Amino acid sequence: MSRLNEINRTAVSAWSPCPGHSHYLALGSISGSLENFSSEAKLEIFKGLDLQKGSKKENDTKPIGTVVSADRFNRLAWGQPNDTFEMGVIAGAMTDGNISLYDPKKIVDGEYGFKNNLLTKLDKKQSSQPWINIQQVLEA
Fold this sequence. Notes:
- The chain has helices at about 105-110, 115, 135-140, and strands at about 10-15, 25-30, 40-45, 65-70, 75-80, 90-95, 100, 120.
- By secondary structure, it is mainly β.
- The chain has one domain.
- It is globular, with a radius of gyration of 15 Å.
């Protein structure tokens, strides 16, 4: 099997479940790694990975939206869209034990800044192990 394309990141990932946006990919900086010698944690959204072209150049695939996170990610899940969130919600299980919920539409639309894109943060005190299955958060 040959590699069609790549994004050079050490990250957890989640594909968009949204019709019309199924080629969107979210990547969250993974715990225990340094990306380009930076301690900054990010949630990035990529669009349209060109699998037909087969390009392997790192600069061919740039994020269409990025937000700096207060903490790194253990897991990511991308929930289904609804009337309120047309691109769904991205849930991140953070290394501090909390769950952070992000609006991917705001990230893609360029509403930069941690506070603008973070919908809410579920405190780890609400559950003994909130990161075990964050899919439950998206289905609630």
